[in-house]
C-alpha cells in the first residue's frame, strides 16, 4: 500500500514588497548568447518582455532555465551548455536573485559556464554542488521542466502536441497536491504489475488443466507398472536375505576354526612344559663348565704373561749384544777416521795452494763505459720519440672515438626521423591509404633508376613547427595530395605511374618555370591592426618542388593567418581584399560570382590535424645526413693516420729494443767477469776454513778408552738377563701342568652336556610341530574371520536387519537354493507384465509434482493479485476524488474565461477502460472541449480548430492555472503568435486581470510586438529588449536600472 498522502502545499502569500517567496528579483548575464552584459529587475507580477525578433528575448528565457538547474535539452536548442557561451568568448555566467521567505532574505544562485561544457554553481557567493541548488529550487516548487510552468519559444509546439495523458501529468505537477503525481505514477506501475499477474494466473491455469487431463489418461497403465514394481520389490527383498544366509554359513565355519585353534594351543603348552624340564639340568652342567673354562682362561693368561716376559728378556739380551758389537765397530771407525783425517789435511793444503794460484793468475777486466753511455743516449732518444708518438696516438684515438660517438648520435637521430616517417605513413594508412607503406618502400628501393629527385609522399616532405599552422594547412590542402609522389622529369613520372598504379597513390610531375617568380610576402600596417601575422605558404618547410605544387594547386599564397582579434573583425578584414584567412577557431572564405559582383561568404570551424602529427624538419634531415657523411670521411682519415703512426711507433720500439739487447749483453759480460772473480775468492776462503776445521778435530785415543769401559758394562747386563730367563722357564712348566688337569675336567662336562642336549632337541621338534600346527589353525581362523567380516559387510550393504525385515525373512525360504529359486520365480512373474512406455511412471510422477507446484503457485498468485487489486482500489479512492476536484476547479475558471470571449469550453476527465478477463482498470485523461457560439463541442485538436484558436486555448488554460498554482513564477514565450488582433487583445486583458489578483504567481510573457492602446495596470512591468548600432549610448544610461520606475508617471498621465 502507498503511504498516506502528505498535506497540500502551503499557499504562498505576498510580502510588503509585493514579492512572493521564490519570485525572481534580479537577473544578471555575462557573455551569454547574444549579451555581453545584461542586468534585469523583473516586477513581482506580470512582466512583458518586448523586443524585435533576434534581439535576445529568448536568451532571457534560456538564462532562467539554465540558471535554475535546467538541462540544455529542455530548451529545444543546443544540447550542450558550452554552446550558450557568447561566440568569441571562453566563459560566461548567469546570476539569478530569488526572494526568500522574508524581504530581508535574498537568495543568489550563480552558474558559471565555459566552452568546454563545464559548469560551476555558487549559492550566495559560495561554491556548492548542483544537489544543494536543486534542494533550494524544490523548496519553492520551481519546475523549469514543466511545460505548464515554463514554456520556452522552441517548445511551444511541443506543448501543443502534449497528449491528454501527458497534459494531465504536467497539470498534476504544476497545480495539484504534491501526492497526485506520485499516486498517478504508482497507479500506472501497479496497473502494469496487475496485468503481469493476470497473464501469469491465466497461463498457469491452462497449464494445470492440461497436466491433470494427461495424468488421468495414464491411470490404468500406472496401476500395472506399480504391480510389476511390487513383484520386483519382493524379489529385491528376497535378494536381501541371500547374503545373510551366506553370512550364517560363514559364521558356523568361523566357530569350528576357533575351536580347532584352542585345541592346538593346549598341545603346544604341554610340549613347551616338557622341553623346559629337560633344559634345566643342561643349564646346571653348563654353569660348571663355565667355571672350569674360567680357570683355564686364567692359567692361559698366566702362561701368556710368562711368555711375554721371557720374550722381553730375550730381546734385551739380543739388544745388549748388538750394543757391544756396535761399540767394537765404533773403536775400529775411530782408528780408521784418524788415518783419514791425516790424508784430508794434506789434500786440503794442496787444494788451497791450487786455488790461490788460480786467483793470482786471473787477468784484470775493465767494462766499456763509453760504449754504454753512447747506447744509453741512443735508447733515451728513441724512447722520447716513441713517447711523443704514443701521445699523438692517444690524441688521435680520442678524436676518433669522439667522432664515432657523434656519428652514432647522427645515425640515432636519422633513425628517430625515420620513425617519425613511419608514424606519418601509419597515419596515412589509417586514413585510407592502405598500401602507402608498399609504395614508399618501392620508391626507396628504386631511387637509382630516377633521372631527378623524386619526393613523396608529400606528408613526409612537409614540416610545420606550429600546431595551429598544421591545422590550417591540413584543412586547406586536399587529402589526396598528402599521399601523392612528385617527380621533376616526365620519364620518372611514367615509371612511377606504371609501377604505383596498384598502390592507389597519385603521381604529380612538376616542371620548373624559371620565368614565374612569386612576389615576396609583406605584412602591411592595416593587416597587423587586424591581427594578420603570416601567410599559409610561409609557415611550413618543404623542398622547392613540393612547395611549388602545394602553392600552385591550392593557392596557399592567397590564404592568410590571423588571431582571435581577426576573428572578431572578420568583416573588416574582407575590406582589405583578403578573400581567405584562418583564425584559431574558424576558416573564413569569400567567393565572387562569375556572373556578377555578388560576393558570398563561408565560415567553417577549424578541425584538428590528424596527419601532421610529427614535425619533420627537412633542413635538419639534410644537415644530419651531410654531417654523417662528413664524420665518416673524417673517421676514415683519422683511422689511416692512426695506422701509419702505429707502424712508425712499432719501428721506433724495435730499434730501441735492439739497442737495449746490445747494452744488456755488455752488462752480462761484465757481470760474468765479476762473478768469476768473486767465486775464486770465495773458493780460497772456503778451503782455508776447511783446513782449519780438519786440524781442530779431537784426539781419538780418549774416545777409544771410553768405548772399552762401555763394553764391560753391557756384558754384565747380558748375564743378568740369562738368569731371569731361567727362572721364568721354571714357572711356566708349573702353569702348564695345572692347565692340562683343568682341561680334562672341562672335556668330561662337554660330553655330558651334548648327551642331554640331544634329548632336548627331540622334544624341541615336537614343540615346533605343535607351534606350526597352532599357526596353521590361527591362519585358518583368521581367514574364516575375514570371510565372515566380508560376508557381514556385504550383507549390511545390501540390507540392514530391522525388526520388520527380520520378520519378513522368517516367511522366506531358509536355504540358499530354495531362496534363489523363489527369487527367479518372482522375477519371471514380474517380467510377464508387459507395457509399451517404460518411463510412464516417471512421467506420471513428474507431472504430478508439477501439478502440485502449479497449484501452490496459482494460489499464491491469486492471493497477490487480490492484494494488488485492493491496493489499486484504495489508492484510486484517494487519488481520483482529489483529481476530480482539481479538474472541476480548473474547469470553472477555464469556462469562465472562455465565456468572456463568447465561447464555450470545458475541461473534463474522460475514462477509458481496459478489460482483461474479469478485471477492470480505468485510465483518466484530461481533454479540452471547445466550440464557437453555434455548433457542437469538439475535442481540441488540429483537425477541428485553427492555430489561433489553439493558441488562445493554451494561454487561457495557463491563465486558469494561475489561481491554483503553487509555483513562484511562470514563463510563456511568444504564445500570442498566430492570434488575430481581437483574440490577442482579449488574451492580454485576461493576463492583466489574472496578474492583478491576490497571490497569483509572477509571470513572464515574451512577445516581439504588442497591440496599441492595451489596458495596463500596476501589476504590469514592461521590459524592453533592443539592439542596433545606436543602442550603446542609451544602454549605459539604463544599465543600472535606476531610471526604470520613472516611466510609470508619464505612462499613467498618458492613459488619463
TrEMBL record:
Keywords: Coiled coil, Membrane, Transmembrane, Transmembrane helix. It comes from the Eukaryota. Residues 24-995 form the RecF/RecN/SMC N-terminal domain. SUPFAM superfamilies: P-loop containing nucleoside triphosphate hydrolases. Residues 208-302, 338-431, 621-672, 837-871 form a coiled coil. Gene3D superfamilies: P-loop containing nucleotide triphosphate hydrolases. The chain crosses the membrane at residues 912-931. Belongs to the SMC family. SMC5 subfamily. This is Structural maintenance of chromosomes protein 5. It comes from Rehmannia glutinosa (Chinese foxglove).
Amino acid at each position: 500500500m502507498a503511504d498516506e498522502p502528505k498535506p497540500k502545499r502551503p499557499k504562498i502569500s505576498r510580502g510588503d514588497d509585493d514579492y512572493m517567496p521564490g519570485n525572481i528579483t534580479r537577473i544578471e548575464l555575462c557573455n551569454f548568447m547574444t549579451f555581453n552584459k545584461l542586468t534585469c529587475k523583473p516586477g513581482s507580477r506580470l512582466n512583458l518582455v518586448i523586443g524585435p525578433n533576434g534581439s535576445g528575448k529568448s536568451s532571457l528565457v534560456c538564462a532562467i532555465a539554465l540558471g535554475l538547474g535546467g538541462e540544455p535539452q529542455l530548451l529545444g536548442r543546443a544540447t550542450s551548455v558550452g554552446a550558450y557561451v557568447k561566440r568569441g568568448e571562453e566563459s560566461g555566467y548567469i546570476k539569478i536573485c530569488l526572494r526568500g521567505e522574508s524581504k530581508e532574505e535574498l537568495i543568489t544562485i550563480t552558474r558559471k559556464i565555459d566552452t568546454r561544457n563545464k559548469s560551476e554553481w555558487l549559492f550566495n557567493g559560495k561554491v556548492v554542488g548542483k544537489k544543494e541548488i536543486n534542494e533550494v529550487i524544490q523548496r519553492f516548487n520551481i519546475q523549469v521542466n514543466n511545460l505548464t510552468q515554463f514554456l520556452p519559444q522552441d517548445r511551444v509546439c511541443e506543448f501543443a502536441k502534449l497528449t491528454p495523458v501527458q497534459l494531465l501529468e504536467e497539470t498534476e505537477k504544476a497545480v495539484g497536491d504534491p501526492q497526485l503525481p506520485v499516486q498517478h505514477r504508482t497507479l500506472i506501475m501497479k496497473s502494469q504489475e496487475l496485468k503481469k499477474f493476470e497473464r501469469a494466473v491465466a497461463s498457469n491455469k491452462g497449464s494445470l488443466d492440461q497436466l491433470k487431463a494427461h495424468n488421468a489418461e495414464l491411470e490404468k497403465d500406472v496401476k500395472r507398472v506399480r504391480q510389476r514394481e511390487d513383484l520386483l520389490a519382493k524379489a529385491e527383498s528376497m535378494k536381501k536375505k541371500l547374503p545373510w544366509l551366506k553370512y550364517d554359513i560363514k559364521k558356523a565355519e568361523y566357530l569350528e576354526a576357533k575351536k580347532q585353534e584352542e585345541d592346538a594351543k593346549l598341545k603346544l603348552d604341554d610340549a613347551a612344559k616338557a622341553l623346559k624340564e629337560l633344559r634345566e639340568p643342561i643349564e646346571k652342567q653348563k654353569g660348571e663348565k663355565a667355571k672350569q673354562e674360567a680357570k683355564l682362561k686364567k692359567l692361559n693368561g698366566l702362561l701368556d704373561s710368562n711368555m711375554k716376559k721371557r720374550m722381553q728378556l730375550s730381546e734385551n739380551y739380543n739388544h745388549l749384544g748388538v750394543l757391544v758389537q756396535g761399540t767394537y765397530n765404533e773403536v775400529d771407525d775411530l782408528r780408521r777416521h784418524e788415518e783419514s783425517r791425516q790424508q784430508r789435511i794434506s789434500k786440503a793444503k794442496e787444494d788451497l795452494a791450487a786455488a790461490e794460484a788460480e786467483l793470482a793468475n786471473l787477468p784484470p777486466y775493465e767494462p766499456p763505459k763509453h760504449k754504454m753511455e753512447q747506447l744509453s743516449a741512443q735508447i733515451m732518444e728513441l724512447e722520447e720519440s716513441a713517447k711523443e708518438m704514443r701521445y699523438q696516438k692517444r690524441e688521435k684515438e680520442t678524436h676518433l672515438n669522439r667522432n664515432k660517438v657523434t656519428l652514432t648520435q647522427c645515425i640515432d637521430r636519422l633513425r628517430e626521423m625515420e620513425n617519425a616517417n613511419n608514424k606519418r605513413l601509419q597515419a596515412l594508412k589509417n586514413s585510407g591509404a592502405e598500401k602507402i607503406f608498399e609504395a614508399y618502400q618501392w620508391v626507396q628501393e628504386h631511387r637509382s633508376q630516377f633521372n631527378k629527385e623524386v619526393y613523396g609522399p608529400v606528408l613526409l616532405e612537409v614540416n610545420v613547427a606550429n600546431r595551429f599552422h598544421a591545422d590550417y594547412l591540413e584543412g586547406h590542402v586536399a587529402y589526396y595530395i598528402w599521399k601523392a609522389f612528385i617527380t621533376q622529369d616526365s620519364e620518372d613520372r611514367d615509371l612511377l605511374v606504371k609501377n604505383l598504379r596498384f598502390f592507389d597513390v597519385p603521381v604529380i610531375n612538376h616542371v620548373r618555370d624559371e620565368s614565374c617568380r612569386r612576389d615576396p610576402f609583406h605584412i602591411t600596417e592595416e593587416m597587423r591592426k587586424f591581427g594578420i601575422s603570416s601567410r599559409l605558404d610561409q609557415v611550413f618547410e618543404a623542398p622547392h618542388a613540393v612547395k611549388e605544387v602545394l602553392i600552385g594547386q591550392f593557392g596557399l599564397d592567397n590564404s592568410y593567418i590571423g588571431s582571435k582579434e581577426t576573428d572578431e573583425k572578420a568583416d573588416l578584414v574582407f575590406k582589405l581584399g583578403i578573400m581567405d584567412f584562418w583564425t584559431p577557431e574558424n576558416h573564413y572564405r569569400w567567393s565572387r560570382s562569375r556572373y556578377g559582383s555578388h560576393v558570398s561568404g563561408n565560415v567553417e570551424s577549424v578541425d584538428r590535424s590528424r596527419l601532421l602529427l610529427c614535425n619533420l624538419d627537412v633542413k635538419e634531415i639534410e644537415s644530419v645526413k651531410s654531417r654523417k657523411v662528413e664524420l665518416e670521411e673524417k673517421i676514415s682519415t683519422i683511422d689511416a693516420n692512426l695506422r701509419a703512426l702505429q707502424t712508425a711507433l712499432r719501428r721506433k720500439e724495435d730499434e730501441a729494443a735492439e739497442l737495449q739487447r746490445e747494452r744488456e749483453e755488455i752488462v752480462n759480460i761484465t757481470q760474468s767477469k765479476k762473478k768469476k772473480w768473486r767465486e775464486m775468492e770465495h773458493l780460497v776462503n772456503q778451503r782455508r776454513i776447511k783446513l782449519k776445521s780438519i786440524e781442530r778435530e779431537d784426539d781419538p785415543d780418549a774416545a777409544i778408552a771410553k768405548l772399552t769401559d762401555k763394553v764391560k758394562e753391557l756384558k754384565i747386563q747380558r748375564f743378568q738377563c740369562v738368569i731371569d730367563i731361567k727362572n721364568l722357564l721354571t714357572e711356566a712348566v708349573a702353569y702348564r701342568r695345572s692347565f692340562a688337569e683343568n682341561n680334562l675336567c672341562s672335556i668330561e662336562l662337554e660330553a655330558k652336556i651334548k648327551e642331554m642336549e640331544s634329548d632336548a632337541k627331540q622334544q624341541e621338534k615336537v614343540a615346533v610341530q605343535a607351534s606350526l600346527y597352532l599357526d596353521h589353525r590361527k591362519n585358518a581362523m583368521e581367514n574364516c574371520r575375514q570371510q565372515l567380516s566380508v560376508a557381514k559387510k556385504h550383507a549390511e550393504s545390501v540390507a540392514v536387519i530391522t525388526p520388520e525385515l527380520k520378520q519378513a525373512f522368517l516367511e522366506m525360504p531358509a536355504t540358499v537354493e530354495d531362496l534363489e529359486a523363489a527369487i527367479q520365480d518372482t522375477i519371471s512373474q514380474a517380467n510377464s507384465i508387459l507395457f509399451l512406455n517404460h518411463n510412464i511412471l516417471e512421467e506420471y510422477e513428474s507431472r504430478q509434482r508439477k501439478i502440485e507446484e502449479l497449484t501452490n503457485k496459482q494460489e499464491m498468485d491469486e492471493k497477490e493479485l487480490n492484494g494488488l487489486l485492493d491496493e489499486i482500489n484504495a489508492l484510486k479512492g484517494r487519488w481520483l476524488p482529489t483529481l476530480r476536484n482539481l479538474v472541476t476547479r480548473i474547469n470553472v475558471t477555464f469556462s469562465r474565461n472562455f465565456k468572456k470571449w463568447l465561447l464555450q469550453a470545458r475541461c473534463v476527465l474522460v475514462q477509458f477502460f481496459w478489460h482483461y478477463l474479469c478485471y477492470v482498470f480505468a485510465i483518466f485523461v484530461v481533454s479540452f472541449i471547445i466550440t464557437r457560439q453555434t455548433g457542437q463541442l469538439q475535442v481540441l485538436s488540429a483537425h477541428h480548430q485553427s492555430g489561433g484558436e489553439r493558441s488562445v486555448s493554451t494561454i487561457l488554460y495557463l491563465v486558469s492555472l494561475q489561481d491554483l498554482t503553487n509555483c513562484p513564477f511562470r514563463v510563456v514565450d511568444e504564445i500570442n503568435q498566430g492570434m488575430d488582433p481581437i483574440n490577442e487583445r482579449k488574451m492580454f486583458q485576461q493576463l492583466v486581470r489574472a496578474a492583478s489578483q491576490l497571490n497569483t504567481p509572477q509571470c513572464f510573457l515574451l512577445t516581439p510586438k504588442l497591440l496599441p492602446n492595451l489596458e495596463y495596470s500596476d501589476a504590469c512591468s514592461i521590459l524592453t529588449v533592443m539592439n542596433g548600432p545606436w543602442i550603446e549610448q542609451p544602454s549605459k544610461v539604463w544599465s543600472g536600472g535606476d531610471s526604470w520606475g520613472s516611466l510609470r508617471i508619464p505612462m499613467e498621465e498618458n492613459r488619463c
